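chain below, 234 aa
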Amino acid sequence: MYHILVVDDEEMIRKLIAKYAVYEGHTVTEAADGMEAIQQVKNGNFDLMIIDIMMPELDGFSACREIRKFSQIPIIMLSARGEEYDKINGFELGIDDYVVKPFSPKELMLRINAVMKRAAGRNTPAPVTEEPRNEIVELANGGLRADLTARIVYVDGKRADMTPKEYDLFFYMLKNRNIALTREKLITEVWGYDYFGDDRTLDTHIKLLRKSLGPYADFIVTLRGVGYRFDADR
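prediction:
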């Protein structure tokens, strides 16, 4: 199973998560603050990290920002607050999931499995064909250019800096441009059938994606009561 780093200044929370994780067959290492978390990730070999936001010494956001400089370890962030700002900040840092306290330990275990399954899919190399060809999509007279094969997006000639999930969402919408996509369809196709979060995560990533697209943000059209559509004819 997985080696999990649990980071929280509340010992009771760490022990609760560890209890359920060990029962599921995982190995758990604990850390009490962000500084300790950074050192643990540098020195250890972990499959996933669960980290709280509000901690002494160094908060979860700052710790994740530093960890992302040298590691792409899957991260689930915990918070006693469910504000959209916190979620956006976390996803911009490249976390994989966000859980609001109080949480169900059983659901957290399911989220761990879902995150690890998605991470494994990202790390699986695509089969190499004899004649590889880059799939390029250009819109707005070349102002918006996407290399779907290389996972690179250019906005007015400048490379856009997106999180892995932003790329997944954008490329799926781009491949299905001019088609109305329900919220359920997007969540299923981008996050997977085993996603246990709420659909507000989709809205948060749409906001992040629009921010990354800059002047072409309005290519993503909100369909009230339905979902979204990538309007390539704008």
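The longest strand covers residues 3-7. The mean pLDDT is 89.
thats it, cya
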